[in-house]
């Protein structure tokens, strides 16, 4: 069994997903309503933030996804008492934070990227931290140099070993001036979670300002932190000695919402995404409209549908917020296989995020991924050294195939392609999808998808 399949089976087991594959009979529009809850990319960080307090926190809107299970396991290993008896609500009590045993941490190694964010909170609480190997989607090298350099700037001593990373704070952590080479989401969160209790002031330049980061800042402010978001990606944090627990409802998952929107378009369907709001999806909504999709912003969600007639090709560049999010391109590309003409999707955030298109080509799509010579394709000069572009020529009818999920968003795009395709497809390794899509099998059923799970 290869490691991707192992990752998938572990993720499936964490959320009680009984099957790691699904057989889909496609060609049927998805119609109905699904609810999205808290964002994977906020909830897990909010859980880590609870470690910084001296009283319990309450987090609401928590989805049943395997990344939440991984972070719960790591927090429990560090002595945080977690009550999850109320659906979608976690109370996290950090009164007895302790160093974890290696075996307990190692059980979660390679499953998510969130462990790296434990550094600052554990250094503040215990004076040391041990971080196991990171996981997350394999979509590029994903180095952590910005994180470690920032931690060093606060005064942490970093020692790497083959088992993980050991950090100590021989003297107190002190505020620092940090200028990120790229507005990294994770590194911005690393700085926030460390600076809030460091002595003195931290100025972070070239910070990421994704909505999930703004929600994390809101949480930290509720806890007693002093953080100001200034123009031009500058965030200033005045350290405080202690923080208290928070009570917060997580921002909705805009990546899940965009995925269901793309599913409506690709299958010729009509899906209302309950819990989605317009502000966080503005860039996505503009592109959705340009492609030919319709949407209606409701009081309690957004309705997305295919109005009939041909879809139009588009040119997109993924970017940091407020640009077109890199996690949105995979589901949308399935819809673009049905647009009349040539679309170009230029990936500027990760250097290897089009692996999923191979399976779409097996299903009949015409997608060519270019590693170089991008200027001639997109008529622009690359901004980062390792950019890729995918050229999608449509419309091409999709047909069923047996495909394996390579990563979270690519995997969801495989589900959408199978739902849109004529004939039967088997999608395996679907456990990976449960890292970020809550109860997706139940939601597919609600939307009238025709599928079977192996008995
Ligand atoms: C759990 C979570 O929130 N995941 C999201 C987060 O990932 P994550 O926080 O890992 O992504 P980053 O924003 O940090 O990465 C952006 C780019 O910066 C590079 N980089 C990052 C850190 C570093 O130390 N060195 C470095 O070179 C990365 O390789 C990548 O090319 O933001 C990404 C960009 O919106 C999203 O696709 C992910 O869904
Ligand atoms: C890349 C993603 O997540 P992670 O950073 O957790 O791998 C994602 O959510 O698409």
From TrEMBL:
Enzyme active site: 137 (proton donor)
The species this protein was found in: Microcella pacifica
Pathway this chain belongs to: Cell wall biogenesis; peptidoglycan biosynthesis
Residue positions binding UDP-N-acetyl-alpha-D-glucosamine: 113, 327, 349
One Gene Ontology cellular component annotation held by this UniProt entry: cytoplasm
Compartments reported by the entry: Cytoplasm
MF terms in GO: UDP-N-acetylglucosamine 1-carboxyvinyltransferase activity
EC primary class: transferase
Protein name: UDP-N-acetylglucosamine 1-carboxyvinyltransferase
